[in-house]
Write a structure and sequence with these properties.
The chain is about 45% helix and about 15% strand.
Amino acid sequence: IEENDEVKIWRDGLGRTMKLPKAAATLALPLDYPVKTMDDWLKIKPWYEFSEGRFGADWEATARRHREDDKVVCVGIPGGFDETRQLLGEEGLCIAYYEQPELIHDILQTIGETAFRVLDVASSKVQIDMLSVHEDMAGKSGPLAGPVQIKEFIAPYYRRVWDMLQERGARLFDQDSDGDMNPVIDAFIDAGVNCMHPMEPAANMDIVKVREKYGKRLAFYGGIDKHVIRGSREDIEAELEYKIPPMVASGGCVLALDHRIPNGTSLANYKFYLEKAWEIMEREAVA
């Protein structure tokens, strides 16, 4: 639609007007959304319905090669919060939970039916190890949907897919969300989730405290404060000494930074972080 040195504006596949300020961001933000009413949704509903065309020509052979190579075979489903947010916007979705619940139910039932049918076929042909879902539904002040909304709208969608895959041998149901997810961890565990990332410390996601509360019911990866590696070596060492020993002792955690390496991180600090992390892990593994 428009592009210059400062900004790029275009229409995406969902019909949204997207704007990217080139000097300030790497992720574009929508200026509008395709769904406000049930009629709007019904126009695009066929995009989300099942068809055989969702299977690539060589999908089964590719998956079997992964299995033979001893790789973890992963599948994904659209987020119960995230995909509806893409259609209605965050404000529109949060209002619709109360004012148009039938709309949200129909969206998630449609997506859920397609996910179930696709993964029913996939899991009948190839052993699946992990189901993943992207939500990004929280900030520092907490999640944008609470336990009530998760139980009513999202959990039935998750459960139908996960129960099938778990019965066929899948072991991990991993959810991706930044922000403070503490208020809804219990609700998502009830919905089947047993692994979460990136466990953002700046948003009160302390992996040591989460492990103390949930034990082996919840695995996770991430959890190391990305902001600390811009500080002093003493700060880095303190963070690693707090996080690594209890995780090595209890297992069920892939230790990593909680997101991208932040701007301003020195190469010397990053190398120190890596070397110190391995030093502590090797020490604790032997202890």
